[in-house]
Amino acid sequence: MSKSDLLVELYSxxxxxxxxxFSSKALVNKMLSYTDLSQARLVIExxxxxxxxxxxxxxxxxxxxxxxxxxxxxxxxxxxxxQFPQPNVKIICDSAENIEAYLEGKKADYVLSSxxxxxxxxxxxxxxxxxxxxxxxxxxxxxxICYSYLLKKLFQKYFSQVEAKFTLKNLPPAFVMICH
Length: 180
Hints:
Helix content: 25-40%
Pfam family, one: Methyltransf_25
Shape: globular
InterPro entries: Methyltransf_25, SAM-dependent_MTases_sf
CATH superfamily: Vaccinia Virus protein VP39
Protein name: Phospholipid N-methyltransferase
Number of strands: 7
GO biological process, one term: methylation
CATH architecture: 3-Layer(aba) Sandwich
Largest sheet: 7 strands, mixed
Distance between the termini: 36 Å
Radius of gyration: 15 Å
Structural class: alpha/beta
Keywords: Methyltransferase, Transferase
Oligomer: single chain
């Protein structure tokens, strides 16, 4: 799928993608700067989209580590399966509400998310954030890209420590929430 096809898909499904454009390389680098993916054993990405964050993860991830990418848009899933054929990358065409069904008893070092929580139902948000927290190791981090600082209060309901970082190097400018 070409970038123009991906953009058409993005705008056709804005209610589920929640973005006006894909994450910039600068935003991806900012998000991933709060991780040590070379030491991770299991990483979960919520909202794979066009694969821009996925590519950043794969570039930093040890080949022995596993990456589970959740995406509900079937067109994005098919494109990512072609883009990331590595055996340690699993593209899961399912809701992030079902994380636990795919963990096989494992715990993740990081849950990296670009989900549009302001567009997801309260029940869906609650399910995703509870499962994300339970999926993490005790030292694990949930890291979220979002466009509103007000979402910090949402994450504070689930995580005891939440730091907000800001970057102008994205359209629109964005926050990275680091939750422990």
